[in-house]
Amino acid sequence: IPIERIRNFSIIAHVDHGKSTLADRLLELTGAVSKNSGQAQILDSLQVERERGITVKAQTVSLFYQYPEDGQIYLLNLIDTPGHVDFANEVSRSLAVCDGVILLVDACHGVQAQTVANYHLAKSQNLTVVPVLNKIDIKHANPDRVCKELESLFEIPTSEVLKISAKLGTGVPDVLNRIISAIPPPKVNRGGLFRGFLFDSWYDKFRGALNLMYINDGSIEIGQDIQSMNTGKTYPVKSISLLRPGEEPVDKLNAGQVGLIGCNMRSSKESIIGDTFHVKGKPVEALSRFKPQQPMVYAGIYPADQSKHVALRSAIEKLVLNDSAVTVTPDSSPALGQGWRLGFLGLLHMEVFCQRLEQEFSAEPIITAPSVTYKLKLCNQKLIKQNGSDTLYISNAALFPEKSAVEEYYEPFVLGTIITPSEYVGPIISLCVDRRGQQLKSVNIDQDRLLMKYILPLNEIILDFNDKLKAISSGYASFNYEDHGYHETNVVRLEIHLNGRPVEEMCRIVHSSKAVQIAREMVLRLKELIPRQMIQVAIQACVGSKVLARETLKPYRKDVTAKLYGGDVTRRMKLLRQQAEGKKKMRSIANVRVPHETFIDVLKR
Ligand code: GDP
Ligand code: MG
């Protein structure tokens, strides 16, 4: 197929606006899958996606379509993307190989925070935007209002907006035709040397790492040897397939196409998203189509017991291959043993990663509370020397230096966009104030909806901001954020002491204005969580030598068999055994036995 008859595009939208449903219709209309295949959201193939009903991974599919205007067959490569802010990495990775996007907007709910973010992302990469309103079949849909929003926010003329129902299929053929008429063919060079851009990969038990590649120049055939620009390693091309959406083997790919390449890549570490490949011995200039995002949130991950260490390591390695935004460094803790510190783009990203570890690799790790990375300016000469500079980046509260060693503290901030019906503005402003937010702007986007911009500390939004926002706006407000750099701050290290002994894993960094409140919450929670002991336990929350909160746990011996009157010996034995097993999973701190789960539970708000 000649270059002029190829289109590479993506569907971008706020979550739930119907991307995956539209993708299903496009697959059916082009015959890639049969109608009424009985399966909805075909491209959401991961178990976690089906359960949560959201797209996590961008998926790619090649469609063949006969364009009614000229009767010719076109190749359309569709890249479905996730809508949630935590997966923006997947979106920009997908956009890197596209020439245009379908901007899909729900005709009932209108433009949302991610619609705005995705639109600007597409524009910044000079992509053609095809505006489409979806769900016009719904009774209270208001396409005219949403068209006005598109005009006032993005200057999109109403006459250009397509109106469809992805669910019923109404207007979907127009979308296909518009893709061909509005989006330009890929800007590639078929005559040149082979140059491939690796933009996704996943692990196959039998074939090793499989690489999804965009052919930027030249062509590639089975049997050729390709070389990675990042590692310099060479691989024989063993298999090439189009995804339709199942693998369909082909012998050759030409510039402008997207295909899956199997090349005996054994270690998942060798497959680097954003890498450029060329034919062995014929180097080319590296492509820089995609800038990976830095993680925003860090958490410790540990095997439930150390015998599972090796299995967990291999599971993490394989999953990271399929989720290149996650960073991994080794870590250890006295209570939890050897583990890793992982970096994520956000909390949902972290939850989804852990759920995938469990579902796809049957791993059951322990995850510690997430934290952001603080930036410290040191003033202690010894520490400066040790660190190699007076600037220290640190996310692990246990390793935070003494206050006297630090001159200035900085914490990461984000620029948040909130779009909401005006009736919820009051509670939303209160929420932002409570989270130390600072309003930059507030504008009407139509009669009854507002767009607000806030600068907020990342630390205040990673755990539950989005949930709270949804709760106070009956689900109508939407939120998105981008990095806003480091701002000077005033934080303290809050320590938990049990009978005078500090518990390293429970210490955390908090803003000084919130220390007392969090200290109270933590000691009260610990009092609930720690089982009573033979001895009295003093639970204290301290900053430096100052005690901010204290609770006392009364002594008590828990006799699990007390309520069993005589009789059943086996049952009695079983209970005693269970109690002994329960004890094994405890950690002893100053003679206080603390169950493993407590370390995690206490940090949840
Ligand atoms: P995504 O998150 O953007 O991929 O959205 P989905 O494709 O998963 O769709 C979200 C929900 O909207 C699903 O329950 C769909 O059935 C529904 N939906 C999608 N398109 C339409 C439509 O045109 N009309 C109606 N009534 N519902 C739709
Ligand atoms: Mg989806």
Please provide a written account of the structure.
This protein is α+β, with helices and mostly antiparallel strands and 605 residues long. It has 15 helices and 33 strands. An eight-stranded antiparallel beta sheet has the order 11-10-16-7-8-15-12-13, covered by helices on one side. The protein has a six-stranded mixed beta sheet with strand order 2-3-1-4-5-6, sandwiched between helices. Strands 21, 22, 23, 24, 25 and 26 form a six-stranded antiparallel beta sheet that branches. The protein is globular, with a radius of gyration of 27 Å. The N and C termini lie far apart (57 Å). About 1% of the residues have low confidence. Guanosine-5'-diphosphate binds next to helix 1.
Which characteristics define this entry?
15 helices; 25% helix; alpha+beta; 605 residues; binds guanosine-5'-diphosphate; 6-stranded mixed beta sheet; binds magnesium ion
- Shape, please? globular
Distance between the termini: 57 Å
Average pLDDT metric:
85
Bound molecules: guanosine-5'-diphosphate, magnesium ion
The largest β sheet comes out as: 8 strands, antiparallel
Strands side by side in the biggest sheet = 11-10-16-7-8-15-12-13
**In which range does the helix fraction lie?**
25-40%
Structural class: alpha+beta
Radius of gyration: 27 Å
Helical element count?
15
Percent of residues in beta strands: 25-35%
**How many beta-strand segments?**
33
Q: Unreliable stretches, pLDDT < 50, 5 or more residues?
A: 52-56
